[in-house]
Amino acid sequence: MCIGLEAFRYFVLYVIFVVTHVSESTMSIKLGRYRHFKGNEYEVVGIAKDSETMEEMVVYRALYGDHGLWIRAAKMFAETVTRDGRTVPRFEYLGD
To answer: Which structural domain, as residue segments, surrounds residue 25?
Structure first.
């Protein structure tokens, strides 16, 4: 499912409005472009909180295909993974 550009803009503004606290686990997660360890690129557009658990979530958009909007727990976004015997960040920051 794709949302229109105007709806996406309102969503981003909502995410920015909702964010009132940034924990240590998300302080290192910057807005900008990232490469997933499997190769695809994404843009982090904000940090939000789950309304039920208050867990911090990363809001990001695919920079390929239908440019889908995704969320992932901040702890998982910032963790490392082991692949082919190497430990690498799940998401590598590329810049603004």
So the answer is: 5-95
CATH number at residue 22: 2.30.30.320
Question: Which DSSP symbol is given to 63?
Answer: S
Q: Pull the structure tokens for residue 38.
A: 């499997």
Q: What is the pTM of this model?
A: 0.71
DSSP track, 1-58? ----HHHHHHHHHHHHHH-----HHHHT--SEEEEETTS-EEEEEEEEE-TTT--EEE
Q: Residue 64 is inside which H or E element, if any?
A: none
Residue listed under structure tokens 């499997």: 38
User: Distance between alpha carbon 74 and the CA centroid of its chain, in Å?
Assistant: 8
Q: What is the pLDDT of residues 81-90, one digit of tens each?
A: 999 999 999 9
